[in-house]
Every structure is written in C-alpha cells, then in structure tokens.
Design a protein that fits this description.
single chain, 258 residues, alpha/beta, Rossmann fold, 2 domains, 7-stranded mixed beta sheet, two-stranded antiparallel sheet, 36% helix, elongated
C-alpha cells in the first residue's frame, strides 16, 4: 500500500490528452506535483524544456533519481508541494503545472496553486476525482467554494473521464483530466476581503445565505436581508446556487452598506 494513499497512473493512454490540454512545447517549464513512479514525468521530459518534479515520498524520490539520472532537463525535489516554496524555482519566467494529484488533498493542492498574492501558472492540468472535477466546472446549483475559487482565476473544463482501472492500486472511483486555462489574477478589488465572504456563505451548506452571512459576519438579519435584496439575491437561497457574478455583486453592495 502506498505510503501517502497515492493511486499511480499505470495506463499510458490518458497521457496524450494531458499533454495536449497543457499545450506543452519545447520552451515550457513544467512543475509536476507527485510524479510517483514517473509515467507522466517521462512524457513531460520529452516535450518540455524544463521539468520540476516535486515528490513527498522519499522512497519514490530515490527511485526517480535513479530512473532519470541521464535526463538533463529534470529537477527532482523531495518536498511537500503544499509547504515547499516552489515558486522560488520559477520566479524568473512563466510556468505550467501538470499532475495526477491524490484525491484526499486535491482541495489543498488547488488552494496552494491559486493564491492571489503569489505568482500564478499560465495553465494547470490536473488528474483528479471525477465527481470533484464535475463540481469544479459546474455552472448550476451545486457550486462549491473550490469551484468559485478556480473560476476567479481561470476557465476550467473537463478534458476527459479516466477509468479507475488505469491506476494502481485501483481506486473506488473514476478520475478526470481537468484543464484550467487563461489563468490571471482575479478581477476583484480586495480579494482577501471578498473571498472570505464566499467561505462564510458556504459555512453550513444546508442553511440559507441569509443565515450563514448573518451569523458569520455578525450582522442582524434585517440588515443582512436588506444587503441581499439590494444585490437582487433571494435571502432564502443557498450558497451553492449563487454564481460568481452574484457573489461579486453581493460584495460590492456590502461595501456600500457596511
């Protein structure tokens, strides 16, 4: 059993779709999160100018160093991606991120990548749990904090579904390749004030946006209801039904009235 609950990609058939989704070329610098046994890494090295492979598992790092000892365009780093200052390695140029990420820390990895105060990749292509990928790209009534975060930075889309049989050990669910392109800084002033409001709105998914905002912002309900209504948002709606544009409108109305 893998030490960090990894599910390693064994089948190479999804690789062309991953590379295509990232639009990789010979001038690119690519960060790979958790290269594992190096199936995707090999293809990245063949296409990109520079590959930075960040792996937390010491045993896998040792194997990767042996496997790629004659490859000149790869740097293999033993570190936790979510704690290591990997941006320091790409401070002088653009970069992309391509990875098959562990299901149980997908949200943490995404939040680490999309930090509004830090340098951003131009493109991100991730293999993740299919159900999570669907929620990230949804525009309907099942939105999440994560889907709003990603939409603030770029345009997410599911490239393809990947069968669980492509991995070892075989996970319980299928995966998906998700691409986030056209990444840029969020077009909202005071992001650090704005995004916590979304988090508060989602604090209890079964409760209305009125209840969550009133409790989380310590506002009385009449005042909270007034702010929501001025933003043309029904106070009895739930956070997962609000679009990103509605959150922005709500935030601007709050700034005027608080």
């Amino acid at each position: 059993m893998p030490k960090y609950s990894q599910n390693f990609l064994k089948d190479t058939r999804p690789l062309p779709q991953i590379l295509s989704a990232a639009s990789l070329n010979v001038d690119d610098t690519v960060i790979e999160i958790g290269p594992g046994r190096g199936v995707l890494t090999k293809k990245l090295c063949q296409v990109a100018k520079r590959v930075i492979a960040i792996e937390i598992d010491e045993k896998l790092v040792s194997n990767l160093i042996k496997q790629y000892q004659t490859v000149s365009n790869i740097e293999i780093i033993h570190a936790d991606f979510c704690r290591f200052n990997w941006r320091e390695l790409v401070r002088d140029g653009q970069f992309k991120i391509v990875a098959n990420i562990p299901y149980h820390i997908s949200g943490l990895i995404v939040r680490t990548i999309f930090d509004s105060s830090q340098k951003l990749p131009t493109d991100v292509v991730l293999m993740m749990q299919y159900e999570l990928a669907k929620k990230i790209v949804t525009k309907t009534t099942d939105r999440t904090v994560l889907s709003n975060l990603i939409e603030l930075f770029g345009q997410p889309k599911i490239v393809s579904k990947v069968s669980k049989t492509c991995f070892r050990p075989v996970p319980k669910v299928d995966s998906a390749i998700i691409a986030i392109n056209n990444i840029k800084k969020p077009d909202i002033e005071n992001f650090d004030e704005f995004f916590p409001i979304i988090k508060i709105g989602f604090s209890q998914r079964r409760k209305t946006i009125l209840n969550n905002l009133s409790h989380g912002l310590k506002l009385d309900k009449p005042k909270t209801r007034e702010i929501l209504q001025k933003a043309n948002i029904d106070p009895i709606r739930r956070a997962q039904t609000l679009s990103l544009e509605e959150w922005k409108r709500l935030y601007l109305n709050m700034k005027k009235r608080l």
